[in-house]
Amino acid sequence: MGRLREYHRFLFEAGTDEAGRGCLAGPVTAAAVILPPGFTSTLLNDSKVLSAEQRFRVEMEIETFALDFGIVHIPPEKIDEVNILNASILAMHRALDKLEVAPRHILVDGNRFKPFAGYSHECIVKGDGKYMSIAAASVLAKNSRDRIMEALHDEFPMYNWRQNKGYPTEEHRAAIREYGLTKYHRKSFKIRNEQLSLEL
């Protein structure tokens, strides 16, 4: 299992994480996962350190063995309405709300969260590299969001979302300068300047 570990202050703990917070386009996506006690995986880790092939293999393990999981996308217009921090928390809340197995405790990646449905929770900075349930949520959120961006690429191929997934690469910014914004861009973000550092 490497350096990731179970937490288990209580059984039925849900790990939650988001993907796409710092993007210029597309949704912010969150997942919540409850893993069974004793779950092991030779690959599971923070989604950012896994290859696409590794994430796919881990995703199959999670979907096969998890006690429950939920995935939710918050669209750009809602991000613009409530800001990215609140949209990220909203996405995590809605992912948790999709769970049919009620968690006893919630592990949150990052340092900001709002209480959910009376459950206890704990924010863990870089938790996706520390605890299995958060890492599992990071993988599901990342994979699900990537598929959305790859589908949107077919509609607007000039932004190359298939590769950059909506993140503020120089190529993406150059395409915005040439072609303007789409309905999938977040209008409240600094599109042409350096992207703000967003800490959750």
General description of the model:
It catalyses: Endonucleolytic cleavage to 5'-phosphomonoester. InterPro entries: RNase_HII (IPR022898), RNase_HII/HIII (IPR001352), RNase_HII/HIII_dom (IPR024567), RNaseH-like_sf (IPR012337), RNaseH_sf (IPR036397). A divalent metal cation binds at residues 17-18, 109. Its EC number is 3.1.26.4. The chain has helices at residues 52-65, 76-82, 84-97, 132-155, 161-164, 170-179, and strands spanning 13-19, 28-34, 68-74, 105-109, 120-124. It is an alpha/beta fold. The longest helix has 24 residues, at 132-155. A five-stranded mixed beta sheet has the order 3-2-1-4-5, with helices on both faces. The chain is built from six helices and five strands; from the N terminus they run E-E-H-E-H-H-E-E-H-H-H. The chain is 36% helix and 16% strand. A hairpin with an 8-residue loop joins strand 1 and strand 2. Helix 1 (52-65) packs across helix 4 (132-155) and helix 2 (76-82) crosses helix 3. It has a domain at 13-146: Ribonuclease H-like superfamily/Ribonuclease H (Nucleotidyltransferase, domain 5), CATH 3.30.420.10.
What is the topological layout?
Blueprint: E1 13-19, E2 28-34, H1 52-65, E3 68-74, H2 76-82, H3 84-97, E4 105-109, E5 120-124, H4 132-155, H5 161-164, H6 170-179
Parallel strand pairs: 1-4, 4-5
Antiparallel strand pairs: 1-2, 2-3
Helix pairs in contact: 1-4, 2-3
Considering the protein shown, what is the CATH homologous superfamily of the domain at 13-146? Ribonuclease H-like superfamily/Ribonuclease H
**Low confidence ranges:** 192-200
What is the CATH topology of the domain at 13-146?
Nucleotidyltransferase, domain 5
Q: Can you list the strand order of the major beta sheet?
A: 3-2-1-4-5
Shape: globular
**Fraction of residues in β-strands:** 15-25%
The count of helical stretches stands at 6
